[in-house]
Amino acid sequence: xxxxxxxxxxxxxxxxxxxxxxxxxxxxxxxxxxxxxxxxxxxxxxxxxxxxxxxxxxxxxxxxxxxxxxxxxxxxxxxxxxxxxxxxxxxxxxxxxxxxxxxxxxxxxxxxxxxxxxxxxxxxxxxxxxxxxxxxxxxxxxxxxxxxxxxxxxxxxxxxxxxxxxxxxxxxxxxxxxxxxxxxxxxxxxxxxxxxxxxxxxxxxxxxxxxxxxxxxxxxxxxxxxxxxxxxxxxxxxxxxxxxxxxxxxxxxxxxxxxxxxxxxxxxxxxxxxxxxxxxxxxxxxxxxxxxxxxxxxxxx
Length: 301
Ligand SMILES: Nc1ncnc2c1ncn2[C@@H]1O[C@H](COP(=O)(O)OP(=O)(O)OP(=O)(O)O)[C@@H](O)[C@H]1O
Description:
Blueprint: E1 2-11, E2 14-24, E3 28-33, H1 40-47, E4 55-60, H2 71-74, E5 75-78, H3 90-99, H4 105-114, H5 130-142, E6 148-152, H6 160-175, E7 179-184, H7 187-193, E8 196-201, E9 204-210, H8 211-217, E10 219-225, H9 229-238, E11 242-245, E12 251-254, H10 258-267, E13 274-279, H11 282-290
Parallel strand pairs: 3-7, 3-8, 5-6, 6-7
Antiparallel strand pairs: 1-2, 1-4, 8-9, 10-12, 10-13, 11-12
Helix pairs in contact: 3-4, 4-5
């Protein structure tokens, strides 16, 4: 469990995180979304004890990172995959981390297997591709078998196979009952990976929602086509719907869902040729939510 409570982090005159509060629960992938400079990395760094809060709290399993007795067994993180000495072999890098945390080498082999690096365990990290480094960073995060995992922009720069692999891993880790927080500035990615979304802009909370709720919130009514539109307008209006003419002779209905529209039409023997619930794409919803909180908006916007 992750809990951020009224967290504020200032760097000199810059407020990177501004009274931010949210919780991340186990058993789900929570996407941590926001435009560049929104404060995602800062929040994660404070959660991991790499930066101190200016005020408020960032808690893992009920306490600040510094209070965790066996941190590597409680929380694992991937912040910057490039931060491994290139001369080290993958196995030795993880072995050193494991030893300094009282973890046996058998676990090193296990995590290398899980991230698909078993075959290159004895190779030097300097020759690794970005995707392989990313996997190595994830292996390190998994070493202590922690219940809480944080990944900062894990798919940046990866090819489609790498992106899919990370997506499936996150989902598997959540299905094992872990708390998974993954930051991104791409809604298109989170739409496929996350169950819940915490959206921030300029350090502040914009939305804390499930992907489903967000889609519903930005629903755009139902498009209906019938050979007897006048009658249908009467029936749907009487049922509490608001009906407007749409392009090509179709009707746009708000206030009733597709099932209600179908049932009413059937009850009155009115044929329907099309019933299409419409919603803004999550990308559009995200753009709308974060409009005004991007660091460098387009000129004139
Ligand atoms: N060490 C620091 N010193 C000064 N300012 C900082 C520092 N770290 C972050 N900031 C500022 O805090 C704000 C939030 O940055 P942060 O990196 O947390 O955002 P982010 O949401 O992770 O963005 P990105 O998607 O670009 O990584 C930015 O304005 C950034 O310039």
